[in-house]
Write a structure and sequence with these properties.
The protein is an alpha/beta fold and about 230 residues long. It has two domains: about 5-65, no CATH class; about 75-220, Alpha/beta knot, CATH 3.40.1280. The chain is built from eight helices and ten strands. The protein has helices spanning about 5-10, 20-30, 45-55, 90-100, 120-125, 140-145, 185-190, 210-220, and strands spanning about 15-20, 35-40, 60-65, 80-85, 105-115, 135, 155, 165, 175, 195-200. The strands form two sheets. It has a seven-stranded parallel beta sheet with strand order 6-5-4-9-7-10-8, sandwiched between helices. It has a three-stranded antiparallel beta sheet with strand order 1-3-2. Helix 4 (about 90-100) links the parallel strand 4 and strand 5.
């Protein structure tokens, strides 16, 4: 394995890079196959790492891991599922993965957009990518149709049919759909939702960053913790 080329690529169809002590430790605790843990100042100097990665690297911990087999829908157990049909920013994606893990979610289902194996997404997830089922859907609409047979789909939307989140009844194992901040959920996806909800806000602010919104929605939809 040419691990230095993998560092330069950052992510390939089969491998990805993990940066930082916490993320590497959580990778090591997981079932992911680790190709190499790179010891800075032993396997590689900090200067060499920075040159290969393309930025000033100062964290001191690196690892190269193999991407796992695709996560099946059956991997999602109890708790809310977060669905992101089209998320562009890997930092937001990683933060949503972290929020989902922290607030009792069953996992994250992704359509188009950022990769969960992007190094920025992994850092933002604080390594929770390795603790939580995350599925990149090959056919999101088919997955949603399958999920709505046994779960309640709740779409975050500012449409005229939306209710304030606090006015929704309680559902067991709901599915929360969060669209892009600029244009939201598509009409086709909204039509699959059992309910549409929004977060009431003041000062004429009509939306929050999607990662921030995910935490509030999940807190309201969360299961009862022991």
């Amino acid at each position: 394995m040419d691990w230095k080329s993998l560092l330069s690529s950052r992510e390939t169809p089969t491998h990805f890079i993990v940066e930082g002590r916490l993320a590497v430790e959580r990778l090591q605790e997981s079932s992911y196959f680790i190709e190499k843990v790179i010891r800075i100042d032993q396997d590689l100097s900090r200067e060499e790492a920075s040159q290969l990665l393309g930025f000033h690297f100062h964290r001191g911990h690196l690892a190269i891991a193999r991407k796992p087999a695709p996560t099946p829908l059956s991997a999602f157990k109890s708790g809310p599922i977060v669905v992101l049909p089209e998320i562009a920013d890997p930092g937001n994606l990683g933060t949503i993965i972290r929020n989902t893990a922290a607030l009792g979610g069953a996992g994250v289902l992704i359509g188009k957009g950022a990769s969960p194996f992007n190094a920025k997404a992994i850092r933002a997830s604080a390594g929770n990518l390795f603790r939580l089922p995350v599925r990149r859907s090959p056919d999101l609409l088919a997955d949603l149709r399958a999920l709505r047979q046994s779960r309640t789909l709740i779409g975050a939307s500012l449409s005229r049919n939306s209710l304030p989140l606090q006015k929704l009844p309680t559902f067991e194992n709901p599915v929360l759909l969060l669209g892009p901040e600029d244009f939201g959920l598509s009409p086709e996806i909204e039509s699959l939702c059992h309910h549409l909800a929004y977060l009431p806000m003041t000062r004429e602010v009509d939306s929050l960053n999607v990662a921030s919104a995910s935490a509030i929605f999940l807190h309201e939809l969360r299961p009862t913790f022991p």
